[in-house]
Amino acid sequence: MGPLTPHLVYKPWGGTRLARLKGLPDSASKLLGETWEVSRLEEGLSTDEDQVPLSRFINSPKTTGLCT
Q1: Contact 30/39 with Cβ under 8 angstroms?
Q2: Relative to the CA of 30, which of 18, 47, 63, 64 has its CA 20 to 30 Å away?
Q3: 3-state secondary structure 6-58
Q4: Which residues, at least 6 apart from 49, have a Cβ–Cβ distance to it below 8 Å?
Q5: What does the pLDDT look like over 4-19, one tens digit per residue?
Q6: What does the buried/exposed string (b/e) look like for 54-63 if buried means 16 or more CB atoms within 10 Å of the residue's CB?
Q7: CA dihedral of residues 38, 4, 20, 41 (deg, nearest 10)
Q8: Mean pLDDT of all residues in the chain?
Q9: pLDDT at 67 over 90
């Protein structure tokens, strides 16, 4: 598993500052309100650089009992 890709959440109250702080080139003109760095929620599931979902690793037999 490589580095996680954050889920970007655009909100009406968002702006460009968060995009600038994170160095996101593409998002500067959008209303970025939140970044979910680590998430198992279906609407914002974290993935690694190969688009493998975090839930695949958290629910794997090697980690059973470590996370609920």
Answers
A1: no
A2: 47
A3: CEEEEEEEEECHHHHHHCCCCCCCCCEEEEECCCCCHHHCCEECCCCEHHHHH
A4: 2, 3, 5
A5: 888 889 999 998 889 8
A6: beeeeeeeee
A7: -30
A8: 80
A9: no
Residue in the structure block whose two tokens are 């690793």: 57
Handedness of CA 60, 64, 67, 68 (dihedral sign): positive
For residues 45 and 29, the model is more confident at 45
Question: What is the C-alpha to C-alpha distance for residues 48 and 2, in angstroms, rounded to an integer?
Answer: 6
| Global confidence as pTM | 0.68
